[in-house]
Amino acid sequence: MPAQLGGKHHLIVDNKPGAGGQIAVQALLSAPADGSTFLIAPLITPVLSQIVYKKPGYDPAKDFTPVGLVAHFQFALAVPVTFAESGYPKAVGSGWYSLWARSGTPVATVAAFNRALNKALADPVVKARLDELALDPDPRSPQALEQLRLAEIAKWRSVIEASGFWAD
Question: What structural domains and CATH numbers belong to the chain?
Answer without folding.
Answer: 12-161 (3.40.190.150)
